[in-house]
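User: tokens in, sequence out, please.
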């Protein structure tokens, strides 16, 4: 069911919140095809607004709230709401009830018809005469000199799709208007009309000073007219000065009389000086915005959240910790690290004989690691996966279990970094949930305790897209709700929370990666838990139809193992910490499409057969949002699906040929 997020900036609105909630609930009940969340952003209210929101949250889980540490303004409040929103569609609505929530169904209808952005445009407003006139002047100036499609009646309500939200967030522009940004950006736009009502309760905080700031911010951000006027004014004044000089000279030559008047000179000087100061002020408005943009201060500071998962998009207030206290000092982030942190480093990879872990080991050694230590129980990993790395002479392989704290501690002693890849397969977790807890949770705890004890510089850990469960929207970004319903996903969520808590308690730097559907060379070829691609290839070899569980419309985001390993290395080469990233391609492929491509690449003329869908991890669709990893790590998957499948097919054929070669015939 599509999710609609209603973003409500509020500042001292305790009198309006109950009525607004009642009307929003009525709108939601009249729109059964949509799931709603009501996201209030408290912009530093001084009244009982926080208490009113807490009371609503206790009654209705759809109510969520973000509270700022102080008043940062409506633009920051809208931006914070957009960053926390989970909806495929979002609508910004003021809390003062001047803009009726009943507009939402009509705006949704416009969006269903194909619009990306829907503005609610006023046709009438119940405001004082002067307020209306000044507002009309603002809209006309913006339309004439800044944004040509600016609505003459103005718009205070806007609904937009998630790609529009993503653009605004990536834009990161300060001192501007979100509405102006959306109008400038284009997309498919539509409008609905409404009558703006009088405020029901409280006093408007939209003061004249704030209105002037909005006008200046909007005009300066989207128009070069002020700077162009400075140029024209300079030319006009220069021309007037030149003409006056000619007049003075001619008057002296022909009439022999000087131009009298100290007063006239002072008038000219004061006039020109005033114009110059005005011009400097206009230029200063532009320069100040550049300076404010590049200084990098957060646009808002979040004091608390209700009903929202942790986010890193804004600044976050944390409990104070005294400097120099115990483990926090011992594990502080190293300063002045060299650009290539891998070269010369000693690194532990748990689960390092698996197909992801061994690929990470290869790339670490190629990047110049002094030593790579492998810890693996070889239940699924193989020594053959490590053959290439073994040739380097810088690989240490230890057969053991991540559940052994003494062994983990011993191997962590003296290493700079840890890659924690050890895990239990999702189907095995469903069969043996107690074993899943010991591997995924106890094993991770052993790694983190050893990392703190031995002052490891950074832990890079494998999580999974399984934490998302059934998608609330696509693509799934890192803020997507954790809808997991599996033991495996529960363990991975616990892993992420443990990493976060160890960063909070001991300042142990970490990055966690939510892998989507990883494939490629060194996948498990044998055993009960072989991947679907291997089972299909085995079926094709035998001349039997590959079996698809379900109707084949299930779609996944398949990412090549070499790209996954490269993302892990980038986590070391960047200063990013206390973050979780998706690792995928951002491309959806259905199981039917995947099977058809595999049949094509193997030259088979067969067709798949379909069976009843499995009960474990039967997710209908999965696609990663990849912008965060690209923005903060510089990572984007490079290997397309066809190329990656060719590599898998060639590797598998080589392994099978090697196994079938008679003993004693190898060179």
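Assistant: Sequence out:
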């Amino acid at each position: 069911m599509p999710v609609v997020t209603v973003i409500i900036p509020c500042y001292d609105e305790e009198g309006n919140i109950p009525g607004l909630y009642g009307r929003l609930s009525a709108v939601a009940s009249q729109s059964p095809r949509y799931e709603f969340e009501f996201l209030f952003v408290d912009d530093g209210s001084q009244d009982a607004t926080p208490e009113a929101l807490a009371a609503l949250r206790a009654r209705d889980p759809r109510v969520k709230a973000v509270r700022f540490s102080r008043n940062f303004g409506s633009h920051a409040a809208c931006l914070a709401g957009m960053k926390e929103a989970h909806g495929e569609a979002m609508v910004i609505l003021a809390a003062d009830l001047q803009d009726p929530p009943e507009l939402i169904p009509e705006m949704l209808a416009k969006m269903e018809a194909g619009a990306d952005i829907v503005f609610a445009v006023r046709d009438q407003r119940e405001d004082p005469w002067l307020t209306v006139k000044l507002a009309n002047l603002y809209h006309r100036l913006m339309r004439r000199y800044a944004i040509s499609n600016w609505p003459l009646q103005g718009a205070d309500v806007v609904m937009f799709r998630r790609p529009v939200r993503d653009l605004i967030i990536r834009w990161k522009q300060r001192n501007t208007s979100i509405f102006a940004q959306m109008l400038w950006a284009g997309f498919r736009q539509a409008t609905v009309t409404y009558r703006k009502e009088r405020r029901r309760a409280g006093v408007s905080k939209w003061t004249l000073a704030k209105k002037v700031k909005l006008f200046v911010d909007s005009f300066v951000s989207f128009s070069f007219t002020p700077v162009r006027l400075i140029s024209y004014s300079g030319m006009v004044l220069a021309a007037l000065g030149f003409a006056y000089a000619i007049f003075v000279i001619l008057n002296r030559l022909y009439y022999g009389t000087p131009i009298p008047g100290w007063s006239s000179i002072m008038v000219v000087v004061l006039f020109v000086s005033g114009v110059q100061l005005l011009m400097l002020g206009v230029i200063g408005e532009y320069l100040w915005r550049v300076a404010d943009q590049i200084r990098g201060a957060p646009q808002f500071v979040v004091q608390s959240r209700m009903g929202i998962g942790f986010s890193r998009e804004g600044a976050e207030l944390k409990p104070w910790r005294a400097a120099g206290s115990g483990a926090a000092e011992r594990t502080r982030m190293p300063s002045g690290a060299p650009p290539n942190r891998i070269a010369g480093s000693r690194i532990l990879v748990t689960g390092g004989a698996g197909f992801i872990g061994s690929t990470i080991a290869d790339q670490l050694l190629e990047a110049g690691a002094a030593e790579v230590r492998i810890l693996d129980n070889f239940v699924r990993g193989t020594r053959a996966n490590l053959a290439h790395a073994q040739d380097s002479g810088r690989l240490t392989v230890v057969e053991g279990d991540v559940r052994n704290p003494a062994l983990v501690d011993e191997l962590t002693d003296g290493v700079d970094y840890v890659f924690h890849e050890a895990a239990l397969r999702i189907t095995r977790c469903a069969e043996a949930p107690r074993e899943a807890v010991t591997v995924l949770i106890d094993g991770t705890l052993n790694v983190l305790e050893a990392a703190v004890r031995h002052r490891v510089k950074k832990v890079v850990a494998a999580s999974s897209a399984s934490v998302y469960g059934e998608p609330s929207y696509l693509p799934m970004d890192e803020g997507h709700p954790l809808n997991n319903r599996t033991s495996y996903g529960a363990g991975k969520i616990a892993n992420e929370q443990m990493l976060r808590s160890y960063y909070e308690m001991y300042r142990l730097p970490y990055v966690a990666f939510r892998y989507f559907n990883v494939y490629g060379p060194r996948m498990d070829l044998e055993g009960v838990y072989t991947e679907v691609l291997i089972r299909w290839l085995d079926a094709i070899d035998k001349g039997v139809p590959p079996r698809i569980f379900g109707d084949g419309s299930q779609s996944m985001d398949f990412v090549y193992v070499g790209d996954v390993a490269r993302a892990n290395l980038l986590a070391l080469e960047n200063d990013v910490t206390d973050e979780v990233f998706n690792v995928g391609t951002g491309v959806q492929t259905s199981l039917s499409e995947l099977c058809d491509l595999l049949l094509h690449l193997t030259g088979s003329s067969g067709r798949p057969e379909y069976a009843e869908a499995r009960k474990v991890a039967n997710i209908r669709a999965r696609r990663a949002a990849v912008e965060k990893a690209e923005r903060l790590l510089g990572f984007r998957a490079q290997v397309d699906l066809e190329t990656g499948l060719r590599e898998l097919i060639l590797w598998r054929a080589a392994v099978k040929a090697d196994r079938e070669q008679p003993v004693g015939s190898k060179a």
